[in-house]
Amino acid sequence: MSEQSLESLLRPELQGQSPYGAPQLDVPVALNTNESSYDVPESVVASIVERVEKAAGGLNRYPDREFTELRAALAEYLARVTGVRLPIEQIWAANGSNEVLSHIVQAFGGPGRTALGFTPSYSMHPIISRGAGTTWIDGLRDRHEGVYDLDADLAVEQVREHQPSVVFVCTPNNPTGTAVTNDVVEAIYDATDHAVVIVDEAYVEFARPGTASAVELLDGRPRLVVSRTMSKAFAFAGARVGYLAASQEFCDAMRLVRLPYHLSSVTQAVALAALDHAEEMLGMVDAIKHERDRIVATCTELGFTPTPSDANFVLVGGFADEKQTWQALLDRGILVRDVGISHHLRITAGTPRETDAVLAALTDLAPTHK
Ligand code: PMP
């Protein structure tokens, strides 16, 4: 018997697909994955070590499967930043918001069902959906190319047309940085009586004043879920902690798909330590927003076309050949992200020194790369 190729044995929806692949290169200026460029403050490091030390002796036992203390700390944090106080039964957490999203799609997507997103958006939404056997539908963000605000009428029209089981709304949106107002989320929710509507707020702490969290909409909307992360504004990407807020029934459904004890004792300990110091952890957010706005202003002056952003990155357009510019920047030790949109690159806002480096390089390159 001849062996079949392993590729042909894959589930059909995975055949020919590419994995998530942001390059992890050791470069002086890494501005490609929207992490915080600022290290965890020393005082918080000390608290983390203390918490982990306490947890270490108990590592012979499984962790608290319900991560009760962590959910309480997350509920407290959400109340502080959104003004909405939720009981811990309305909070769920996992290893990064990627796993949170994966739990949601495992529970509400799956074979024979579809998930709809509005592209360009976060590349993991389709990958997570397909991974759970869900058919992905690449919806449109706007009728006009190069416009990245989510068009409410178009979104509603597509929800009605496709009748998905899951709808992804990313705000502020990766990779465009554009935010979606709550009335658009409400319109999408009202356009269906059976789809779970995921609002991915991974970057919400960077939004400009006037952007309300969709957490404010949760009351009376059992199919609405808001996912968030400690990876971005919280400067805690390495800890892998994401969470969601939704109705209690929704959170209960997550228990059907999570693996038991998915959040290790160490993860719970480090997250609790960071949440004890939320203000310090978020201390660089304003500085990062300043760098973001500087990238927008200078790129505009250089004749590129950046999209004003509510996140910690900027999508910059106007490159004659984005692949060539990406390489030219890398040759100068600067790693940015090619998000697969022609003539565009995405640049994370980091420290002033990093902004100086990327803007100096773009100034240098502008005459030949525009
Ligand atoms: N959502 C969006 C929109 C993102 O950009 C990211 C990270 N790039 C995530 C979710 C996942 O982040 P994490 O798993 O680190 O929480």
TrEMBL record:
Database matches in NCBIfam families: hisC, PRK03317.1
UniProt record similarity statement: Belongs to the class-II pyridoxal-phosphate-dependent aminotransferase family. Histidinol-phosphate aminotransferase subfamily.
Modified positions (N6-(pyridoxal phosphate)lysine) in chain numbering: K232
Region (Disordered): 1-22
Range of residues in the leader sequence: none
Subunit-structure text: Homodimer.
EC number: 2.6.1.9
The name this protein goes by in its record: Histidinol-phosphate aminotransferase
Molecular-function GO terms, alphabetical: histidinol-phosphate transaminase activity
Catalysis performed (reactions): L-histidinol phosphate + 2-oxoglutarate = 3-(imidazol-4-yl)-2-oxopropyl phosphate + L-glutamate
Naturally occurring in which organism (per UniProt): Dermacoccus abyssi
Cofactor(s) needed: pyridoxal 5'-phosphate
Keywords: Amino-acid biosynthesis, Aminotransferase, Histidine biosynthesis, Pyridoxal phosphate, Transferase
Gene3D superfamilies associated with the record: Aspartate Aminotransferase, domain 1, Type I PLP-dependent aspartate aminotransferase-like (Major domain)
Domain Aminotransferase class I/classII large: 29-362
One Pfam family it belongs to: Aminotran_1_2
